[in-house]
């Protein structure tokens, strides 16, 4: 193997020049506009969410926090299983 081949530097220079623009010419890049799309499912979920500052929601949160702290908060395993199954059926 020869380390200093005569054509080796020529090939390196050829590759390094490909990304450069010619002198005096500017390349114009067109920029697209940003766009946000909210799915119908997300809008439906937004409608179902209660107002976070409503008194009923605050009371419910306080009740759940108290149950968790006391160790009395329990979720039925059949409800967990139903939610897991419904999730996997959607996929």
Automatic annotation (TrEMBL):
<keyword id="KW-0678">Repressor</keyword>
<protein>
    <recommendedName>
        <fullName>Negative regulator of flagellin synthesis</fullName>
    </recommendedName>
</protein>
<dbReference type="InterPro" id="IPR035890">
    <property type="entry name" value="Anti-sigma-28_factor_FlgM_sf"/>
</dbReference>
<keyword id="KW-0804">Transcription</keyword>
<keyword id="KW-1005">Bacterial flagellum biogenesis</keyword>
<keyword id="KW-0969">Cilium</keyword>
<comment type="similarity">
    <text>Belongs to the FlgM family.</text>
</comment>
<keyword id="KW-0966">Cell projection</keyword>
<dbReference type="GO" id="GO:0045892">
    <property type="term" value="P:negative regulation of DNA-templated transcription"/>
</dbReference>
<dbReference type="InterPro" id="IPR007412">
    <property type="entry name" value="FlgM"/>
</dbReference>
<keyword id="KW-0282">Flagellum</keyword>
<dbReference type="Pfam" id="PF04316">
    <property type="entry name" value="FlgM"/>
</dbReference>
<dbReference type="GO" id="GO:0044781">
    <property type="term" value="P:bacterial-type flagellum organization"/>
</dbReference>
<feature type="domain" description="Anti-sigma-28 factor FlgM C-terminal">
    <location>
        <begin position="34"/>
        <end position="85"/>
    </location>
</feature>
<dbReference type="InterPro" id="IPR031316">
    <property type="entry name" value="FlgM_C"/>
</dbReference>
<feature type="region of interest" description="Disordered">
    <location>
        <begin position="1"/>
        <end position="30"/>
    </location>
</feature>
<keyword id="KW-0805">Transcription regulation</keyword>
């Amino acid at each position: 193997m020869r380390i200093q081949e005569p054509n080796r530097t020529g090939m390196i220079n050829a590759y390094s020049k490909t990304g450069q623009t010619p002198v005096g010419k500017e390349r114009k890049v067109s920029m697209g506009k940003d766009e946000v799309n909210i799915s119908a499912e997300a809008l439906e979920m937004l409608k179902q969410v209660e107002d976070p500052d409503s008194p009923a929601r605050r009371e419910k949160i306080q009740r759940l926090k108290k149950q968790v702290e006391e160790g009395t908060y329990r979720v039925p395993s059949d409800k967990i299983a139903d939610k897991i199954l419904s999730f996997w059926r959607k996929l």
